[in-house]
From TrEMBL:
This is Endoribonuclease YbeY. HAMAP family: Endoribonucl_YbeY (MF_00009). Single strand-specific metallo-endoribonuclease involved in late-stage 70S ribosome quality control and in maturation of the 3' terminus of the 16S rRNA. The keyword Hydrolase applies. The gene is ybeY. One of its GO terms (molecular function) is zinc ion binding. Pfam families: YbeY (PF02130). Its cofactor is Zn(2+). It is found in: Cytoplasm. It comes from the Bacteria.
């Protein structure tokens, strides 16, 4: 089970990668979802906008786009693209540290791959509750 973090033409300050990988494996286990491979790609707004337009036909900026690439619904093979620009802006907007906002988005992507949705108000509320739970578990 491989988890990788790759910057694409951006700098990202991701501390304790080994601990984070172990925590993500635990997150999937807690959610009852198998994990085969997970690739996080940290990128710019422009790069993620291109992905959003090309694959999802959305012409908007976003902080994250998540893709399930596997065919087994019980085992994740995923790619998660995160805009470092959005993370920085949202950290300022919500008055949290960039580190905390980056981890919120990292856990958010994993939750999507575990089956959580956030399109409806009730789904978004549940997603936020789970993000907060994992942030609390991770940062204590």
């Amino acid at each position: 089970m491989a988890i990788n973090f790759t910057p694409h033409e951006v700098k990202v300050n991701l501390k304790n990668k080994t601990r984070l990988k172990a925590f993500l494996k635990e997150q999937f286990a807690r959610e009852g979802q198998g994990l085969k491979s997970l690739q996080y790609v940290f990128c710019s707004d422009d790069y993620l906008l291109e992905i959003n337009q090309q694959f999802l036909q959305h012409d908007t900026l976003t902080d994250i786009v998540t893709f399930e690439l596997g065919t087994d619904p019980g085992v994740t093979e995923g790619e998660i693209y995160i805009s470092v620009d959005r993370v920085r802006d949202n950290a300022e907007k919500f008055k949290v540290s960039e580190e905390q906002e980056l981890h919120r988005v990292i856990f958010h992507g994993a939750l999507h791959l575990c089956g959580y949705k956030d399109k409806r108000k009730d789904q978004a509320a549940k997603m936020r509750e789970k993000e907060n739970e994992y942030l609390q578990l991770y940062f204590g």
